[in-house]
Design brief:
Layout: H1 3-15, E1 17-19, H2 21-24, E2 25-26, E3 29-30, E4 35-40, H3 48-59, E5 69-72, H4 78-91, E6 97-99, H5 106-119, E7 126-128, H6 135-147, E8 155-157, H7 165-175, E9 183-185, H8 193-206, E10 211-213, H9 223-232, E11 235-236
Helix pairs in contact: 3-4, 4-5, 5-6, 6-7, 7-8, 8-9
Length: 237
């Protein structure tokens, strides 16, 4: 590596920073240059127009100075915001980490995101959807539209989402074949013996998952089942 190229790389790295709303929005326009991570919220109360503008800025930002991590925390997005963000994802972004905790996406907003992430080549390796009320339909949408075809995601956070056995079974079905996921967080859902058994069988068959978090589920008190899961993953929480 030449001295000039090394200097360029160091200068670029030092120019990137963590950004917030005040750093990136000026009226109705958004500027994402030099932001390695963009955090909005909690309770930023973005309007649909704000999310639309942000989504457009993400879609048009493909150079090395664009954000690779986006955190939208308790904005809330709701369905329409999720739809707009899905459009940005469908058009391609540089995002590698997407954290959408506490955004009331519910099943339809989650389905939109899952479709966008499944149908388009992305570099996303971390997705957190904690506390979005996605339920079994949302979990099934993630399994069917995204996990079945996505080859980059390594970490999936679905804690506190009212996911029951049907959602766990849907996730288990794709975990058998998925070779990239390393960590799944299903804490504080409504998964009983049936759902955790399906997950245990899938993980035993694939041996790909390293971390599984299931605390706070009804079946988490079953010592025999927990031991089975513990033997199938590197870390059980």
């Amino acid at each position: 590596m030449t001295a000039r190229l090394l200097l360029l790389l160091l200068t670029t790295a030092s120019a990137l920073r963590d950004c917030t709303l005040s750093d990136t929005r000026d009226g109705d326009s958004w500027s994402l240059d030099n932001c390695s991570k963009l955090t909005l919220g909690p309770r930023a109360l973005l309007s649909v127009a704000d999310v639309t503008g942000l989504s457009g800025a993400l879609s048009g930002c493909h150079h090395v100075h664009c954000p690779t991590v986006l955190e939208l925390l308790s904005v809330p997005l709701n369905y329409e915001g999720g739809r707009q963000l899905s459009i940005a994802l469908a058009n391609g972004t540089r995002l590698r980490g997407l954290d959408l905790r506490w955004n009331s996406l519910h099943r339809e907003g989650t389905r939109r995101l899952a479709e966008a992430l499944g149908e388009n080549a992305t570099a996303l390796d971390s997705l957190t959807l904690e506390s979005n009320g996605i339920g079994d339909p949302g979990a099934a949408a993630l399994a069917d539209y995204m996990l079945a075809s996505n080859g980059t995601l390594r970490s999936l956070g679905l804690a506190s989402n009212f996911i029951g056995d049907a959602g766990a079974v849907a996730l288990a079905a794709v975990l058998r074949a998925n070779t990239t996921l390393e960590s799944v967080d299903l804490r504080h859902n409504a998964i009983t013996h049936q759902g955790l058994t399906a997950l245990a069988e899938a993980i035993e068959a694939s041996r790909g998952l390293g971390v599984l978090k299931v605390q706070g589920n009804p079946a988490a008190a079953n010592a025999e089942l927990l031991e089975r899961l513990r033997s199938a993953v590197a870390r059980l929480e």
